[in-house]
Amino acid sequence: GPYSRLTVGCKNTKLPSDLTEIEKEAFSGCTSLTDIKFNNGLQRIGDSAFLGCTGLNGEIELPSSVFEIEGKAFSGCENIESVRILLGKEGEKNHYDGECESKGGCISSGAFEQCPGLKSIEIPADILYMKENIFDGSDNVTILCNRGSRAREYAYDNNIKYSLLETQEFQKTD
Question: Which residue among 7, 8, 38, 144 has its CA within the 20 to 30 Å range from the CA of 17?
């Protein structure tokens, strides 16, 4: 089920393997949180879930199952240096609910704003919906993306540096 602050506190934590959603503000303001490992199967990171988690640093890797990163999810995480969102199996990120209904993953406004330490974010081709102002105040970021992807178009439209990755294939389904 969902994870909320009550079940967590602020210490470094390994999320349970059956977790599908990190609730709104679950870790908001947890400055002592320095590292978090996201589980496969996680689908949604709630609004302001990691707002102001200044202790988070290094690389954050989001599993391919994540289809929605809600508004201000990592806002003010000024010491995160890189983010990798993994490409899913074909159709894995499709969903029809939440803040941005889409046939693909979605990143909402302010999700990575005020993250001056953020140097790179890898956004796979199955993220199809990106709202405005995702990277406000994160002026050092380069978007790593595929030619013809929504992320490349977003970078171009918003005057954000980008670097093209080799085209990725969808993971093979068994």
Answer: 144
